[in-house]
Description:
Elements: E1 3-12, E2 22-28, E3 33-34, H1 38-43, H2 65-72, E4 77-80, E5 86-93, E6 96-103, E7 106-113, H3 128-134, E8 140-145, E9 148-153, H4 156-161, E10 164-167, E11 170-177, E12 182-190, H5 191-197, E13 201-205, H6 219-240, E14 247-248, H7 250-266, H8 279-285, E15 290-299, H9 304-312, H10 315-321, E16 328-334, E17 337-345
Parallel strand pairs: 3-13, 14-16
Antiparallel strand pairs: 1-2, 1-15, 4-5, 5-6, 6-7, 7-12, 8-9, 9-13, 10-11, 11-12, 15-17, 16-17
Helix pairs in contact: 6-9
Amino acid sequence: MLISGLLAVVFLFNTNISPKEEILVNEEEQHPKVDQTLDEVIAQQDSSNLEIPQESLINVLGKSSKELIRILGEPERKDPTFYGYDWWIYKMDLHTYVQVGVEKEKVVTIYATGSDVQIPPFKIGQSISDIYHLTTIEANIGLDYGDSSYMFELSEDDMNTRPLIKLGNAFLQLYIDKFTGTLSSIRMLNAKTLIEQRPYEMVYRGELLEVNPPVNVIEEKVEKGNERQIFDITNMIRERHDLEPLEWDEETAEVAFAHSKDMFETNDFSHTSKKYGELSDRLDAANIFYQTAGENIAANYLDAPAVAEGWLNSKGHRESLLNEKFTHLGVGVYKKHYTQNFIEKWSE
């Protein structure tokens, strides 16, 4: 598998400040290894004894799409993925944002964030110490699926920034904001989806379950969905920090997309394009007028929630996400290369 990397740069218009690039290698997905002794280890593991209140969004996992509509209503839109499910997008308001993965009329995964999202016994903004009091966080999470056994091995960084909790046949991945030590968002997955996505190092016994992308999925639609999701999640992050939401800027999004495509085609992961230059050069060429601008880039992340949470946990990228001067945002995604271009537009 490929390494997922991040870079960030912020600069001021018409100054002599040189952009300082920050690179962060955040995730490395390993090839799964075979372990014939897993049965004995998994048999000794217990699921979390967490009590999930009836009103918790966690209970939606596994329900039918009809039940989902009854609970949350019709989604704002449906974004396809390469993982067999469609993301049903629910933007209730600036304080509640939910993505529900629906595959074959069944909820297989959920991503939720926002200060008002209902996910008890957890709450966005909850401290990591409170979470550790609620349940035990394990370094190794095992499960049986079909005739095979799987074990996810979490690193120390995983334990601190994205711990995994086994809850019966469901799994909860908690994204922790390491700068505040609080819960930023939560992802819920069934066993099949977790195994196929393999967000941690994994060993297995038996047959390795692989994801089979739908033959009719259109890559461009997946990428456009990721762009809008990154935009939505960025504004949820800003709301949590009492900042004004950003407005979507289509011209800036086109610049961002062109840079993602250029990075993929040249295999050059950088803010500086050999052909199109720095961010300032690319914005000027598109006749975009701004006072301040910034850029976050990433590659090979699973999806929009994963890359947004990755940016949040990196100092340079976080500064762009939480920069109070920025007013507009454009996002471009091309073959798992991600670019965010932030601008502060000229005021009248």
